[in-house]
Amino acid sequence: MRGLKDKVAIITGGIGDLGYATAKRLFEEGCKVALFDLKQSDAGLAKAIDALYIQVDISNEEAVKLACERVENELGPAQVLVNTAATFIFKGVDATEEDWQKINSVNIVGTSFVTRYTVPQMIKKGGGSIINFSSVSGFVGQRNFATYNATKFAIRGLTKCWAYDLAEHGIRVNTLCPGYIYTSAFVNSCKVLNLDIEEENKRASEMHLLNRQGQPEEVAAAAAFLASDDSSFITGSDLLVDGGYLAK
Ligand SMILES: NC(=O)c1ccc[n+]([C@@H]2O[C@H](COP(=O)([O-])OP(=O)(O)OC[C@H]3O[C@@H](n4cnc5c(N)ncnc54)[C@H](O)[C@@H]3O)[C@@H](O)[C@H]2O)c1
């Protein structure tokens, strides 16, 4: 893809399934990548893609500021930011104050902190691309998903407002909205809930026109497209990578 070679890219949630797949694809396209994650990285993961790994809680503003400064000092100013980090709390009307504070502080406020401290680096370089991860859950209601879906709707709102604010600096901002992706999180949640993985996969597959769950690499390819100059006239937009979930 055009325009990615030697660009510095920050990927939040970079140790997660979709974050790491995106970081790997950006590395393969020639980017220098920095992974932000709360989780301790297996040393081999970052090394395999020559990445700068920074353990940081994106809901802590001071820590985010320092992490972004470290990227600029060690790799140079970032021109790509992929916000995938999220916490997953699935509650309906029974959600508590603690639930709301926790999920909002990461999915909305944390995403805003990383963006806040990355944008000045993009301005220095004359432009950039920000990709915010929402979901099909940012478009529709789902039973007992109010907490999660509210944040995924909010991400689409942030994207459109930031696209307004940042266009004059040559910074494009878009939302990437996956359908159900076959990840280790999916497999683990089946195990935790004692559900049959094959049956659950079949149930999830049937929600999509393509009758399967997506693969992390399919999401990563779309993120790389939005990061690249091949999407140079796209901003304030939602890119669905959902196998036809929302077309049903
Ligand atoms: N997997 C799917 O099917 C799917 C579908 C639609 C949308 N999404 C979206 O894609 C994104 C990535 O999902 P995933 O499946 O890769 O999940 P994941 O759990 O594998 O990755 C999320 C990562 O975010 C990190 N994280 C959580 N809180 C953090 C914090 N406070 N600071 C820093 N890092 C933090 C986690 O440690 C984890 O590594 C999310 O925004 C999710 O809403 C996923």
From TrEMBL:
A GO MF term: oxidoreductase activity
Matches recorded under Pfam families: adh_short_C2 (PF13561)
Protein transport as UniProt keyword: no
EC number from the UniProt entry: 1.1.1.385
Alphabetical keyword list: Oxidoreductase
PANTHER family: DEHYDROGENASES, SHORT CHAIN, ESTRADIOL 17-BETA-DEHYDROGENASE 8-RELATED
Family that this chain belongs to: Belongs to the short-chain dehydrogenases/reductases (SDR) family.
Protein name: Dihydroanticapsin 7-dehydrogenase
Source species: Dyadobacter helix
Gene name in the database record: bacC_2
